[in-house]
Design brief:
3 copies of one chain form a homotrimer. Chain A has helices at 3-8, 12-31, 53-58, 70-83; strands at residues 42-52, 65-67, 89-104, 107-120, 126-140, 143-153. Chain A is an alpha+beta fold and 166 residues long. Chain A is globular, with a radius of gyration of 16 Å. Chains in contact: A-B, A-C, B-C. Chains A and C meet through helix 2, strand 3 and strand 4 of A and helix 2, strand 3, strand 4 and strand 5 of C.
Amino acid sequence: MNAADRYLTLSARDLRFELEELYADYAACLDEERFEEWPEFFTDPCIYKIVPRDNFERGLPLATWLCESKGYLVDRVTAIRKTAVYAPRYVRRFVSGIRALGWTDALLEVRANYLALETLQDELTRVFNAGQYRDQLAVEDGRLKFREKICIFDSILVPNSLIYPL
Amino acid sequence: MNAADRYLTLSARDLRFELEELYADYAACLDEERFEEWPEFFTDPCIYKIVPRDNFERGLPLATWLCESKGYLVDRVTAIRKTAVYAPRYVRRFVSGIRALGWTDALLEVRANYLALETLQDELTRVFNAGQYRDQLAVEDGRLKFREKICIFDSILVPNSLIYPL
Amino acid sequence: MNAADRYLTLSARDLRFELEELYADYAACLDEERFEEWPEFFTDPCIYKIVPRDNFERGLPLATWLCESKGYLVDRVTAIRKTAVYAPRYVRRFVSGIRALGWTDALLEVRANYLALETLQDELTRVFNAGQYRDQLAVEDGRLKFREKICIFDSILVPNSLIYPL
């Protein structure tokens, strides 16, 4: 049985375990600012989007971030490391309520809530951005990766610039 | 073995899996504003209460919300959909630290922490309400449902009206 | 097979279950203010530290709290119960993204994110402190305990005194 088939036949319980591990690793990668490893959580091609909930629910195309390939994710990392000018900050992510909705054509539909906290230098930690992940996962190189990851956030405001991925 | 017996004999590990699924589904039902599905998470009869921690710990009867039957839950949903006048908002729930304390007379005692974030239109996302779920679950229609759900919140203040369930 | 060996040979899935249980119990012990039970989560000897992330990452020794033995943890509890003068408050802890990094010499390296909310009397619930647990666990008395627990928090500010453990 190849890796893709193995995932397709996992019990709901074993699949939850795999997803808990994946989302914990994903959040830690970003929280620990290992941004160079971030694109490796995605298949190639892939879609990564950050959109306000209002736009998403009305079907409006406007996205705050839109990456339509893995190369684009790498570009984002380069921007964080070299180009962008921004105040130093820590972002910490909490993922909760992971739900596997099922497989369709070797794509696994997953939902989860995320909360990102932000801490600017000499400031208190505060709620930065919260919303829902609407993800499609596929098996690539023997493990689950994001074929599509949409971060739909509840507020159209963010207290500060969106510098780091969610 | 009937469904109730199956749940009663689950290992601690399998029970945790069932609870993780249930609480994720419960939060998503409310976060996604599928309020009509919410009463289906409860047995009939049931108790649903939202109370400040101070009142709960002193044994005071006053509750912010008190629903003493499934019909009452349905009434709440009608109020949300048709009666209540309130500013549009998104509420998002994070459940953490689920603990199964054990079965007594076919009732499963469960504790968990919840955090509800609220986002009003054109405002930042903020902490709305946080506390502990003190729940009693029973098996009905072959699955775990809430026989009693008490949301005990830490602050006697809420930044805004409590419109949606927790 | 003794208890220590049993833990060492657990599958990743079973180990995640054990850690989810442990961290839920740990948070509940503190949230419910059963402080006398708190030192029992630690081995003897043990290290418990709360440090700002900046200090930790620069290798600076300064810690906000430093307990270098189980007796020191007990002293902390005595201070909370008898010595310290502070405004009444509730603290509630959310643990997310637990990751077991592996065993070295019978010590299990674990990471997780934590968020502590605080509610002062007649005030709203707010973000109090958030950061990463960097823990080393060992098997003692047949169960997993903290040989070392370091709470590395993102903000050098705390909105109020740090009275209760994290």
